[in-house]
Amino acid sequence: MAVFTTRSAAFLGLAVVLCVIAGEANAQQLSPNFYSTSCPNLASIVRSGMTSAVQTERRMGASILRLFFHDCFVNGCDGSILLDDTSTFTGEKNAGPNANSARGFEVIDALKTQVEATCRATVSCADILALAARDGVNLLGGPTWSVPLGRKDSRTASQSAANANLPGPGSSLATLITMFGNKNLSPRDMTALSGAHTIGRSQCQFFRNRIYNETNINASFAALRQGTCPRSGGDSNLAPFDVQTADGFDNAYYHNLVGQRGLLHSDQELFNGGSQDALVQQYSNSPSQFSADFVTAMLKMGGLLPSSGTQTEVRLNCRRPN
């Protein structure tokens, strides 16, 4: 991890200026060309780093995507999830939805170090995370898209906001629609974004109740998951969201839902006699429609920015304010 305590006075002065003017960023429009002059190699640096990370551990693509979700849903896409706790605030890393499950921070640290070496004090951690999430999806076989850039990093984080804003694995369909709606994301956006669960893993503690107590679940699937998730103990044991292609970004997640093989209660809620059944069926039959809607929803979510009164900057170290 890079340490930024020995910069020159001029460089530290630049950091102060960045902090002062960063509040203006919220009023500007994000643009894919934001760094075309100031950091023209940004996309290739992030792509190379994510390629290495995913080659080392394919699950990392899902982990970085989850970080992006959990960042944007709490006070906008501002890199706040990346901040370590300090003596003055308790951040988001140890909020209920993140504690002992959010991962990939070291990958973002490495990307930040590489970007800083080329474009010092220029690119926000929030933008690096947005690019890394896109590349993680694409490297696992999913779509790609042009990422609007120009976000700034928050100087603080809120554990209570993370607990309040992130939907849990036991959420009902009504709760999911409401929580996504609070972020100006439609039910269609919510169902498309939930397709992120076509990659990644979940801990036993988050799906135990479903596989032992719920009835809208395929019996053989429940038995399979019970093999690694006992009634008690083994809380951190992992199972793939998608039993078919665990690390391939495709539409199999929706096939699973139609077959009552959703891993989490909140997953199966999307296909349980409710308002999203027809859309789930559509996505299960049309991977191209799912991909198109997923990209649209990712762009909408990625456009969530912190409120205008938030103190922001380009952090030099993603784990702490300048």
From TrEMBL:
Catalyses which reaction(s): 2 a phenolic donor + H2O2 = 2 a phenolic radical donor + 2 H2O
Annotated SUPFAM superfamilies: Heme-dependent peroxidases
Annotated binding of substrate, by residue: P167
GO molecular function: heme binding; lactoperoxidase activity; metal ion binding; peroxidase activity
First and last residue of the signal peptide: 1-27
Top-tier EC class: oxidoreductase
Protein name: Peroxidase
Species of the source: Triticum aestivum (Wheat)
